[in-house]
Amino acid sequence: MRALIRSWPLSVPLFALVVLALTWGRDIPVALVVIVALALGGAVSTAVHHAEVVAHRIGEPFGSLVLAVAVTVIEVALIVTLMVSGGPDSVTLARDTVFAAVMITCNGIVGISLLAGARKHQIVAFNAEGAGAALSTVATLATLSLVLPTFTTSKPGPEFSTGQLVFAASASLALYIVFVLTQTKAHRDFFLPVGISDSEQEHAPPPTGRAALISLGMLLVSLVAVVGLAKVESPAIEAGVAAAGFPPSFVGVVIALLVLLPETFAAVRAARRDRMQTSLNLGYGSAMASIGLTIPAIAVASIWLDGPLVLGLGATHMVLLALTLVVGMLTVVPGRATRLQGGVHLALLAAFLFLAINP
């Protein structure tokens, strides 16, 4: 029994992968829906565990970067797969998914982390330079990819022309690469946790290289299982959304919430250990990766996709995005925050979710 408990970081992702293989592309009964949900929860927990092992080995901010990029790459693959399968709702799928990810990360992950950290430590501290740089990059990426298409005139509707899409995709990818180089090389100290004593940092020895490689592999397995099982659960989610009378677009929000669960749990655990900078790295890093990797991938995929590619946001979503960026900047500029800032961000997330249900 003890051996089984000790082996859960390896056995649970493999079990989730088996469940995914047995249920992918099939109509599943209610009993299997419950099993899939349990496997999904287990995959989320193990993803957080293995991400922390990798982060402990390679240190910050590389650990946060690994989890953010891994989740986003798999999320992009899922988006492209769904768009290739077609359907009338696929023309706005990339926009809806990316915007939902931005709102969930910048308000949900950041807000919950601020609230959890301040509840335990009263005031949480972080590097204003690093957090401000990350948020300004998110603002630029979001404006280039999600706001400008609404106002361009080369094509009717909130769409880019081919040349504009190529520019936006190239600029987004280039800006994301520049940020990663800044975060990991030129100004790495801007993105390290503050207020951690040497004794706390050295309390546990880092895992061996072999253990870190195993955890990296199991992290990828866990993330594949999370995204895949979320897709398997989507028919049950769609039925629940329809039964509740919510718009069909809300299904994308629910799936985005499920996919981002590993980063959310990792960010909250870091905040409770007074490593708020790590939480911000995860939140803003995920938002950047979601735009900076998704838009170029969609631009390439659009060569084979039929129909328009709608990227521009509507007026309501633009107001929410602008308010999120303004509030986020006011939060990160002082370099410290209380539970009030966490509450403000969560209020914005609640507004986004409410308006997604009742547009």
Automatic annotation (TrEMBL):
InterPro entries: Alkaline_pH_Ca-Antiporter (IPR052946), NaCa_Exmemb (IPR004837)
Keyword set, alphabetical order: Membrane, Transmembrane, Transmembrane helix
GO terms, molecular function: potassium:proton antiporter activity; sodium:proton antiporter activity
Coiled-coil segments: none
GO cellular component: plasma membrane
Membrane topology, from the record: Multi-pass membrane protein
Superkingdom per UniProt: Bacteria
NAD recorded as keyword: no
Annotated ranges, domain Sodium/calcium exchanger membrane region: 30-184, 215-357
Tagged with keyword Methyltransferase: no
Primary location recorded for the protein, binned into one broad class: membrane
Identification of the protein by name: Ionic transporter y4hA
Organism: Kibdelosporangium phytohabitans
Lineage summary: Bacteria, Bacillati, Actinomycetota, Actinomycetes, Pseudonocardiales
